[in-house]
């Protein structure tokens, strides 16, 4: 692992707001560590007929992450050097609640996969503990309905299709299985259609406005299933209408944050599309063909599962993203990593906190954690007056923010 700077404070970060920890009882980060992680362990136990070894390892993880400290990785761990570069040595021996929240959450998934034998060797190597819930979602009535809506959409003017598919991708971010674990009513709460920040016009300008050469879009994916499918539909539309010439889909190299998309999930989503009735299959076949001729590629960079902000991305990823005409960063966690997981005043300019990014960048996110930047003062005041702090974490609000000139 040649290329990861130390985690504590990169030279490129903007150190002007405190990093979020999970140490405040009653706060959202605390509840994720104290309640969501144990619930995830329970769900994983129930999903597979694991043997005693795995149950014992899950017991040990539960004790460590709720009442214990961050333990060192085994000396023969395949990713020892990587985690060492990502802050392991500095955080070993400290309570999971006292280190940066982003770090302890991310490390939890690394440990969970270890506990169930995902990293092998052995018969459970590569078995995604979240696959049953991901597949259930892919097979759901809601997915059928969303795909059926494409039949009607296809007859509409192209601009209308583009807007609908962009919003499909944006609001698809509500389909987050980890979030639902700690907030069962989340999906039933009505979404607030007015975006808290809306740079859609700039986004379309960057996505091959009239006369522009079709460039490369990088999409840093978030959840599989009902978020990944609309992401893929948007990519298919942009390719088909010449707004981009090529797309790179960045997914996770291993299962993460319950429902984050891996390469296996991309394959499942494409198979789901190609086997669907109606227009959905046509989208699926176009995407399949784009994979075959290289207009759509999938990447699973190790840094996608790093416990660090994107300001600390390694040089090879930085160079790769610098070649994209636009990078779309999907979802809440990626937003936290993009702007830095810090207590920013909400009016902190988005362009300022993303100045580290190597090229034009857009965030498409529903709001599910405390971090927020780029609001105008009136919008913030209206949200606070109506909801206190609830708008930050309820998943009912969304944003499209673009910075066209970083890097
Ligand atoms: O990134 P996503 O899928 O939009 O959301 C991830 C999430 O559910 O998990 C994190 C807390 O565990 C938060 O960032 C957010 O609430």
TrEMBL record:
Cofactor(s) essential for the protein: Mn(2+)
Domain of life assignment: Bacteria
InterPro entries linked: ARMT-1-like_metal-bd_sf, ARMT1, ARMT1-like_metal-bd
The keyword Manganese is annotated on this UniProt entry: yes
Pfam family, one: ARMT1-like_dom
Domain Damage-control phosphatase ARMT1-like metal-binding: 33-378
Reactions it catalyzes: beta-D-fructose 1-phosphate + H2O = D-fructose + phosphate; beta-D-fructose 6-phosphate = dihydroxyacetone + D-glyceraldehyde 3-phosphate
Keywords linked to the UniProt accession: Hydrolase, Manganese, Metal-binding
PANTHER family, per database record: DAMAGE-CONTROL PHOSPHATASE ARMT1
Family in the record: Belongs to the damage-control phosphatase family. Sugar phosphate phosphatase III subfamily.
Protein name from the UniProt record: Damage-control phosphatase ARMT1 family protein
